């Protein structure tokens, strides 16, 4: 009985009993499963039990899953949030990824192994973060056993989040970024990480933390774009009981919980000028004043901020305070988007296939040469996050051990064909200079690749469309390096 009680708790929120039962059967060997048919029942469960992961159906009577998960994010921020939906193009879900801090959304009809793998990964991430939050307490104890346990956890985290674990090819543009970050990590400087959504800014921030002298203390994350100013202040700086409706008890903010550690403020460029004033005061004075509190609380934290915005431009436009910009940008690091480092796509894809395959119970799955060529031809506007989702989808929907190109979504298969003719097959601009022959070669390579992608690498159909023989097509593929 005690073993069951020690399992992480998962809460299923779905108004259809059959859906609840199906998910329960998938998860009940690995988790303690709770269920709720509506938001009120779910709130009751969350108030009674510590829940690691919540899975919520998007379409429910009364309110959508995203709206409810936004409330969960505000009241139970440590719970990992997953939404399940049968509607892939729902604007509510897309907006909710940020607004509700959704960890992942799963498409119906879901695959049992895929669902189980996603929940396992979410629970492990929650457990690791919870362990790290307790680490600084254990390090201060006088019990040798607890000190050793804490040291082991710290060593594990350092291995998991080492700069070398940031997957990239030899000579990648990320090499210089990681080298600079490793040098900066030793010093207690504020760091601003710039880059597109999904490019790996948080991964770089975690590596910075675990390479720093603060590694034994908590690393806490807040997405500043996900919640309004008043709730953001409460989340970061804390609040006193009775300070606003729903404040039933004192709540220590993330700055207090991260004392001696690191606070990662994602999407800081989305904050309002009013909030920026308060944040600047905290950073200057080294203390926070909880909402409704009369006394300031000293805090010692390192701040790593991130944004996909051009903050210097926002300063010029009067949308971001110049004094706060210089306070957070002690050192600036830029993570290039995946389309600017196409050489990294292969190593990242191979690693993701191994990780996702293991999560889904398919550890031996691999990519064919044509599948890899297809991945390397797509520009990946969603960066590594989009690449991971595409690989997970392909593994879940294919029974073969070797994933072929046709297992990918239409968006990836035909993505090149819909792009501007100003781009070549590698997702980079056609040369603006060079001889006529060089420019024509680049255009020919683009047309060949797009045609092959459109026909899912069927050489017979591609050759027919281009008016070539199979031998002629193969010769041109070899010439332009398109043979997988």
Automatic annotation (TrEMBL):
- Tell me the ranges covered by the Response regulatory domain, including all copies: 9-123
Q: Which UniProt keywords are listed?
A: ATP-binding, DNA-binding, Nucleotide-binding, Phosphoprotein, Transcription, Transcription regulation
What residues does the Sigma-54 factor interaction domain cover?
A: 167-396
Q: Which InterPro entries is this protein grouped with? A: AAA+_ATPase, AAA_lid_NorR, CheY-like_superfamily, Homeodomain-like_sf, HTH_Fis, P-loop_NTPase, Sig_transdc_resp-reg_receiver, Sigma_54_int
Q: Which residue positions does 4-aspartylphosphate occur at? A: 57
State the Gene3D superfamilies in the record.
1.10.8.60, 3.40.50.2300, Homeodomain-like, P-loop containing nucleotide triphosphate hydrolases
Pfam families of this UniProt entry? AAA_lid_14, HTH_8, Response_reg, Sigma54_activat
Record's protein name? Sigma-54 dependent transcriptional regulator
